[in-house]
Amino acid sequence: MRFGSILLRMITIISFISTTHGLIHFYSEAGDRHCFYKELTQGSLLIGKFKLEIKDEESSIYYSPRDKNNIGVLIDVEETFDSNHRVVHQRGTANGQFTFIPLDTGEHRLCLTPKSFYSRTWYGKKKPYSDINEFTIIDSKFKSSRISIDLLIADSSIIDSRRTNEVQSLSKQINKLNDKLTDIKREQKFIREKEAVFRDLSERTCETVVRWMIIQVTVILLACLYQIFSLSHFFVKIKIA
User: Fold this and answer.
1) What is the pLDDT of residues 6-27, one digit of tens each?
2) What's the N-to-C CA distance of the chain in angstroms?
3) Does the predicted TM-score (pTM) go above 0.70?
4) Going from the N-terminus, what domains does the chain have, and what CATH number goes with each?
């Protein structure tokens, strides 16, 4: 057991030394914490891209966890110059990225801990086995892992420029939407005006038609009354004759 732990540490040290373009590979047991030391200046930007692979104990093959929600790493950043004050403590996925802007200049310790966040308990009650994915159980029992991490130190103005570009892009989109909304309101106003003109014309047309209908009906009634009066007068003359 002691020889195995010594061998594991030697492998870890060798993996730290064998880096290519800032990319580091190291092997770790589940729950073990591995740290890097970086001298960071105030206003700089630390970007870390990492990938966690877990080991299949039967085939000794490392693979990306199939359970994307419960397998990941814990990310800690501590200020060694300030009594190891922890400034970052967050949960990461198995394949992701983190960024950190130091508040003060000095040596910082960046630590990664491969871990399974899976738990069968949910609000104090055990989950039924029917709700548990088999891959979740298999991946959560991993013992060994391999982590690849690429660290890049850049200027924090990159983020500011990106945010500025994003804000400008959003402003342009908002302006375009406002212009489209203005055009839509203008078209709606034009349509309402045309509808008002059409409504007034329809009302005047209906009034004219009704007026002429009343006139025609009145003339017809008068003509009928005249005809009835003429016929009655004619029949009276015939009887008298």
Assistant:
1) 444 444 444 443 333 467 888 9
2) 151
3) no
4) 22-155 (2.60.120.680)
